[in-house]
């Protein structure tokens, strides 16, 4: 069973066409084992990036994000699952959702990206 334990306040990120932005996402659940955590980044129901059991996974990634997402694996132990989105375009504007799931709980963070 999965229950939502917290939803953080919405983050707003402003980026410029062709530049890179870091989309923040972190969990306060530091007692959980990293290999028990899955992170799912979504944008308009498209798969931006998945981190499965603490490992990067691009298997089901939407082609729109192929080779454009950078992660920070060294930060996973600190429960920081932020991603860097490179070469952004107007198509990337909107709401990105970061779902952090674990067998005992789940977090959801929302990031709104504006393109200038």
Automatic annotation (TrEMBL):
Record has Electron transport as a keyword: no
Top-level taxonomic group: Eukaryota
Keywords: Cell membrane, Disulfide bond, Glycoprotein, Immunoglobulin domain, Membrane, Receptor, Signal, Transmembrane, Transmembrane helix
GO BP annotations, alphabetical order: regulation of leukocyte cell-cell adhesion; regulation of T cell activation
Chief site of localization: membrane
Membrane topology: Single-pass type I membrane protein
Annotated GO CC locations: plasma membrane
Pfam families from the UniProt entry: V-set (PF07686)
Keyword Disulfide bond: yes
Entry's localization field: Cell membrane
PANTHER family: BUTYROPHILIN SUBFAMILY 2 MEMBER A2-LIKE-RELATED (PTHR25466:SF14), T-LYMPHOCYTE ACTIVATION ANTIGEN (PTHR25466)
Protein name in UniProt: Ig-like domain-containing protein
